[in-house]
């Protein structure tokens, strides 16, 4: 095992999925992965096992989705959905209490809502999606669902590689994934969205999305257009660019994975700057791997060999970061932690579907900029 002493990163490592096809390559991949997990919390994955033609089709659909008539987008507003799926207008979302300059459609993997009276409210969070009419975007839904299914499989394969990198059995992660290290589709619901960051106007805020951690386990980000803007915060608090690299996914680690692994796997603070005035829009498609809703991570933190845990020491002290969200994983069921995240980002949806939580987090009422509906 190599000592990963280059603790303060200034660029994001690229890992090649095709290495996994030989025994020697596999060992190399796992070693590079261990370094990226512990020291960076971000990586690019080249040659991912997701059909090229589905990715290309999705890239081609993306601007057309935003070009749908205004009233069609409004018909599937997120405010309709207790599951926080659907369309959010530009400026409808908050990060760290500040308005994000992005327009987006939240989708996810298929799931049938399980909530019944008496169950905790957070079980309402997973449920059916809202889609634009098939005739306006023929083939979009089927393509996206095919894409999501492949990324979901990849996300489980990746967790098994993480188990290998940290020298724990793959079943160690099963409780977080609904009891199986490779759950069947429909056991969990993973969120994904299609995002448009328009060019900022002269003098406007450049907050495409403000500094934050992702929740859950892993995020797989497809940078659809050729625009820079995604930035990752290193241990010294400096913002490092993660520009689009054709043919790759950007993978980063969520706060739940960090908590479960005693901080071995880093959740890394990141943000997106809006394209400069006069630019075309930036588009991206993140996929957020969820974990079982009823799991309280604080009760299930994994054990590691001392020589693995010691690898954390080589990265040194984690410095100041600008992100503060998802700190509650040690305390509450993961579903509730995610619901808190959704309520804070989309107060208008919360006011309608989770009025008690809305009052708790927004005692002064709807913030002026967030009241987009
Ligand atoms: O759009 C991007 O590149 C990143 C978006 C992101 O970090 C998020 O939505 O959590
Ligand atoms: Fe993110």
From TrEMBL:
Domain of life the protein comes from: Eukaryota
Family: Belongs to the iron/ascorbate-dependent oxidoreductase family.
Presence of keyword Oxidoreductase: yes
The protein's name in its UniProt record: Clavaminate synthase-like protein
Keyword hit for Lipid metabolism: no
Keyword set, alphabetical order: Iron, Metal-binding, Oxidoreductase
Signal peptide: none
A family per Pfam: DIOX_N
GO molecular function annotations of the record: metal ion binding; oxidoreductase activity
